């Protein structure tokens, strides 16, 4: 994704974000009997992404790996073209939430201001950052390679993922996105209460690691596969996206048009290939 991502986006922390999980006293009721207990809850807080001093978006997210989230969001939403256009990230927690300050290249900042100007005065944003219908389906970068996704690799990744979902094991409340190489080895996992956030986080983690290339593997997500998930995976450069639940028809059309392998209903030893059949072996 970048020639030297180790030089991109150094991170500093002001006041640390709150923990991603908290424990609460609860009352468990079973078979007509009640008993006090303690439960682990995944947290979510407002996270503001601020570019060169201008707030662009506020989203609810799990307060972990926020530097990866900010960089990944910037890449998958095409706010920057590559990690080298991010010069630094500062994460600062406050009483109302967490502000993630990003310093980005002048070219990217000018484009961002133009984008914001076109949205001025609009309310009820469902697809934030989009001001016309033709912008909903973005032009995705064409894939030049034809990586082969094997059934063995998909099964290996599916088997290995649960033990890498530490927060979900405690809370049962988070989605995960994992980057897997073509042998099915998991190199990075990120979790969040939002499936889009988890994918942004793993894209950011990949962009920060000089030893990993997104196009040498696939993304595995513990969710359905929507248009937005396909767009983010394609913008990050993945060879394919594998979801444990259903895809939408629009997501399948987009994946096919972008040359992205799309597998869904991936559970245990089975999956269904919806796009890129010629690049999949059982």
CATH classification, class level of the largest domain: Alpha Beta
Mean pLDDT: 89
The CATH architecture designation of the largest domain is 3-Layer(aba) Sandwich
User: What gross morphology would you assign?
Assistant: globular
- Strand numbers in spatial order across the main sheet: 10-9-11-12-13-14
Instruction: Give the class from helix and strand content and strand pairing.
Output: alpha/beta
Subcellular location: Cytoplasm
Family: Belongs to the FdhD family.
Organism: Pseudoduganella umbonata
InterPro entries: Cytidine_deaminase-like, FdhD
What does this structure look like?
The protein is α/β, with parallel strands linked by helices. It folds into two domains: 45-135, Ubiquitin-like (UB roll) (Roll); 151-279, Cytidine Deaminase, domain 2, CATH 3.40.140.10. It contains seven helices and 15 strands. The strands form four sheets. Strands 10-9-11-12-13-14 form a six-stranded mixed sheet, with helices on both faces. Strand 2 and strand 3 form a beta hairpin. It is globular, with a radius of gyration of 19 Å.
Task: Describe the secondary structure blueprint for this structure.
Layout: E1 11-13, E2 21-30, E3 33-42, E4 45-51, E5 54-61, H1 66-76, E6 86-94, E7 97-104, H2 106-119, E8 149-150, H3 151-160, H4 166-171, E9 175-181, E10 186-192, H5 195-208, E11 217-221, H6 227-236, E12 240-243, H7 249-258, E13 261-267, E14 270-275, E15 280-281
Parallel strand pairs: 1-6, 4-7, 8-15, 11-12, 12-13
Antiparallel strand pairs: 2-3, 4-5, 6-7, 9-10, 9-11, 13-14
Helix pairs in contact: 1-5, 1-6, 5-6, 6-7
């Amino acid at each position: 994704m970048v020639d030297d991502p180790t030089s991109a986006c150094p991170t500093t922390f002001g006041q640390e974000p709150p923990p991603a999980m908290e424990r609460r006293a609860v009352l468990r009721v079973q078979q007509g009997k009640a008993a006090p207990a303690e439960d682990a809850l995944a947290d979510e807080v407002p996270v503001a992404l601020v570019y060169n001093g201008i707030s662009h978006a506020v989203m609810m997210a799990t307060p972990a790996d926020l530097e990866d989230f900010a960089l990944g969001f910037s890449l998958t939403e095409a706010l920057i073209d590559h990690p080298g256009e991010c010069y630094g990230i500062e994460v600062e927690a406050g009483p109302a939430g967490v502000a993630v300050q990003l310093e980005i290249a002048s070219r990217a900042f000018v484009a961002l201001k133009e984008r914001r100007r076109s949205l001025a005065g609009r309310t009820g944003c469902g697809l934030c950052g989009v001001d016309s219908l033709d912008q909903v389906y973005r032009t995705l970068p064409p894939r030049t390679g034809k990586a082969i996704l094997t059934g063995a690799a998909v099964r290996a990744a599916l088997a290995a993922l649960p033990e890498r979902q530490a927060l979900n094991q405690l809370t049962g409340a988070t989605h995960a996105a994992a980057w897997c190489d073509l042998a099915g080895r998991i190199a990075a996992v990120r979790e969040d209460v939002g499936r889009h956030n988890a994918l942004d986080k793993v894209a950011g983690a990949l962009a920060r690691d000089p030893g990993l290339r997104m196009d040498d593997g696939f993304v595995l997500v513990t969710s359905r596969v929507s248009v937005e998930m396909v767009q983010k995976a394609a913008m990050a450069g993945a060879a394919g996206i594998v979801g444990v639940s259903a895809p939408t028809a629009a997501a399948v059309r987009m994946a096919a048009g972008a040359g992205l392998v799309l597998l869904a209903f991936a559970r245990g030893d089975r999956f269904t290939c919806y796009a890129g059949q010629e690049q999949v072996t059982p």
